[in-house]
């Protein structure tokens, strides 16, 4: 079968539950275009998500989707990729899913370097449960669970992911659709774990300065700043600006990507299986010496 | 002549009692004896107290045995720590290291002291023969060989295996220690000779433990993915699969935590591969949410829970059968999750194969409830004819179904809908933890939810008729019943055989399918029953209570249950049965 011809071939018949004006509409549109550009047919794509507004996204594509449980998209996606490395595996979720309840998995997905693309739709608030404090909410934010203002410092997703050693780290906003589309495509093409933090505004519970209009005014394309994406230290320095600045583009791309975990696993299997394949019916003899 | 011998040894971590037990076990299995060995430790990583029991027999060994025939104490403090695990009685031959001094007066408070208490200068004999008192456990082996007529060449073979790599000198000195033990036995014979009969069919027997058996059966069943996290006493399954599964094209992922381990396994199942995870009680608690996901997304998964003492950290190194409620009921929402339990090292193989078959055929997570005893005891196993075992594959959509508007969760009479996986053209669907309609589309409709719940329960209804997953023995009209599961079933089998030999009208039921409770099977079995025992190692008596939930147990059937780390003895079960028989006479 040849790859579908238009981005519409990646769009499912399901109608999104998102609020009108939600940034996630832009994200899914950019994703259709990026997938079209990459060219893998939908049945060879596994799209895994957790729980949250943004985690509904797999259902809006024609790929094989798996809308799992809160915070566990990354482990489940690694199982998918290791079970069948031929698949294109994309993972998506919100800032709560990825950096709060599922935060413990991020470091390990990155250090293992399974070839996944992780799209976090970061809106600094819990939308699905109607407006509570999130791990990326700025200090002082007043929400229904922080009525007098949050006393916590937010996590910095860019700095965290860079520090864990991710080989591809970018930030995007639906305020720049061509830019976001290109970044998602580049992340998918990166051979290893890739991360795109998408500043996807929550129209219902988000702050004024987090809306698309404000993004358009605030965003600073890294290319225009002369940033060299192969410079990890410069990327770390830029990442410190998360929250204060809206940098868009590739913060870091490892110029010499090491082999991904799934590639190494496959290589080792091939080595071990050289010669006669081991018949499973003889397992008691071959493994336990019966 | 005797045909059954139970030896228990206890000492400090460095004494080598477990190593001596292993030598004895290896020697026995090489001669064609049936044999079984359990180990027990404190929770220390190194050092601390350690003990083992070895049971040798010319007949199939069903359990670690009751009272010890021979007890070996290298020091009294460690020996006493194992109280219920190394029980002694008047007929036990108790030998102790001379340097430990005579046995404390209150050593056996609940029974008469053994008639034969023999002081052996083990360390001195080791020192004078081998040049080091570290060979004292080899002297013990010599003493046992002398008293019970164990072939010296078999023990010598064991020594060779153990010490060959460590140098000829060490092997030679241990041989001398063995000889000095034999010489001691000759000079100090037992009050009445107790030579062990020769096995009917000489020839080496395979030795393995339940965790090894489970791992091998997973490979046999076609498992291609394992995700897990180390936890006592299940870790060996991951270790064995890490070594072996890649040779069969499979993948093992040591995950960052228990949740991640089961998550990866569910992901691999979604991707179309047979997959598995293994854990113990605390890990099972953590995995519960993802198990619910597998249930509603209708994805096959095998989860091994090797039970240990609980709750919480409990007693990680000792057996208990107290995770049954957790295995059956740890879920939010209406969930039916099959639970199987092996009863020996040997049947761990077919039970594991059955677990994969149920998981794949019914597209559901299945729990195998093993326990620390079965998982970590080493025993001789008769050859398993794997050609008699069927391996099932999940029902996948046909090319015609894929071409004609495939619906992942389509209603079918059986409740089982063909399951596609990524890579299959035309099989694309959304799997989800959220309730969904036949296509997989999310829904909040109460009517669809009810229909889907009904479908997920209906597909498992055939398990009610799986009488083949129950061992039933004895006269069909017997008024007395003995019911047991897991490692306790081995004790029940022996108690049953002895009760029958005494003419008791008793029958035995050993379920390996624990949940769902196969009501018709129990009803048929219990029709003639007026009294009986449900034997299990948990404080609450979890199977007994589970049965009362689903089956009208005759009032005379009672629970015989106690907390873990205090294994049952066949004689105490027999005694209870006799009392019950008396009550209904």
Would you kindly provide a written description of the structure presented here, covering whatever features stand out?
The complex is a heterodimer of chains A (290) and B (585). Helices cover 34% and strands 14% of the residues of chain A. Chain A has ten helices and eight strands. In chain A, strands 2-1-3-4-6-5-8-7 form an eight-stranded mixed sheet, sandwiched between helices. In chain A, helix 6 links the parallel strand 5 and strand 6. Chain A starts with 22 loop residues before the first helix and ends with a helix. The model of chain A has no long low-confidence stretch (mean pLDDT 96). Chain B has 585 residues and is of the alpha/beta class. In chain B, the strands form three sheets. In chain B, strands 6-5-4-1-3-2-14-7 form an eight-stranded mixed sheet. In chain B, helix 3 crosses helix 6 and helix 4 packs across helix 6. Chain B is globular. The relative contact order of chain B is 0.09. The mean pLDDT of chain B is 95. The interface between A and B is large, with 55 and 67 residues.
Provide a brief overview of the structure:
The complex is a heterodimer of chains A (about 290) and B (about 575). With about 290 residues, chain A is α/β, with parallel strands linked by helices.
Topology overview:
The complex is a heterodimer of chains A (290) and B (585).
Chain A: H1 23-38, E1 45-49, E2 64-67, H2 73-83, E3 88-94, H3 95-101, H4 103-112, E4 117-122, H5 157-164, E5 168-172, H6 177-189, E6 194-199, H7 212-218, E7 220-221, H8 232-239, E8 247-253, H9 261-272, H10 283-288
Parallel strand pairs in A: 1-2, 1-3, 3-4, 4-6, 5-6, 7-8
Antiparallel strand pairs in A: 5-8
Chain B: E1 4-12, H1 17-30, E2 34-41, E3 49-57, E4 70-73, H2 76-81, E5 93-97, E6 116-120, H3 122-130, H4 136-148, H5 152-163, H6 168-187, E7 206-209, H7 210-220, E8 225-228, H8 235-244, E9 251-254, H9 258-270, E10 275-279, H10 281-296, E11 301-307, H11 324-329, E12 339-340, H12 345-362, E13 365-371, H13 372-376, E14 378-381, H14 399-403, E15 430-432, H15 446-458, E16 470-473, E17 480-484, H16 488-501, E18 506-511, E19 513-515, H17 519-526, E20 531-536, H18 542-550, E21 556-561, H19 570-584
Parallel strand pairs in B: 1-4, 4-5, 5-6, 8-9, 8-10, 10-11, 11-13, 12-13, 17-18, 17-20, 20-21
Antiparallel strand pairs in B: 1-3, 2-3, 2-14, 7-14, 12-19, 16-18
Helix pairs in contact in B: 1-4, 1-5, 3-4, 3-6, 4-6, 5-6, 7-8, 7-12, 9-10, 16-19
